[in-house]
Amino acid sequence: MSSHNNYSYSSSSVSFSSSTTRNGQTTGSRYAEHTTSDSSGTTTHIASQHSGEPLRHERRDYDSSGKLIASEGRALGNSGVDSNRRIEDVSDEQREKDRLYEERIEDEYAKREGGA
User: Fold this and answer.
1) Mean pLDDT of the chain
2) What pTM was computed for the model?
3) pLDDT, tens digit (0-9, with 9 covering 90-100), for 58-98
4) Strands 9-22 and 68-76
């Protein structure tokens, strides 16, 4: 009994940018799309931006029959980072955890040295 597996994979990318200056005012946009496909389906990533606006990223996943199964998009800040994400200072919390850990370790060593 012999089985034959046929695996295929493809990938494509396209991008463009444009700008126009009228009356000393420059406007522009940029667009990039990357698509990968294999036997399980297709994933497309799209990034686009107009002058003065945040970068927008979208991902679309399709099953092997071409049916859209997932789609998500979000605007990214000027730095290219999801604007809903944030940095949180956890140094005080970590410092307290470190202090408690050191206390427990010292207690454990003291028990071992005392023969308990």
Assistant:
1) 80
2) 0.55
3) 999 998 898 888 888 776 655 555 555 554 556 777 788 88
4) unpaired
Report the candidate in 39, 35, 37, 33 with the shortest Cα–Cα distance to residue 56.
Answer: 33
Write the CA distances from 27 to 18, 51, 76, 105, 111, integer angstroms.
8, 6, 19, 62, 72
How many residues are there in the chain?
116
- Average pLDDT (12-30) is 89
DSSP string covering 52-100? TS-EEEEEEEEETTS-EEEEEEEEE-TTSSBTT------HHHHHHHHHH
Q: Taking CA 90 as the corner, what is the angle to CA 103 and CA 95, rounded to the nearest 5 degrees?
A: 20
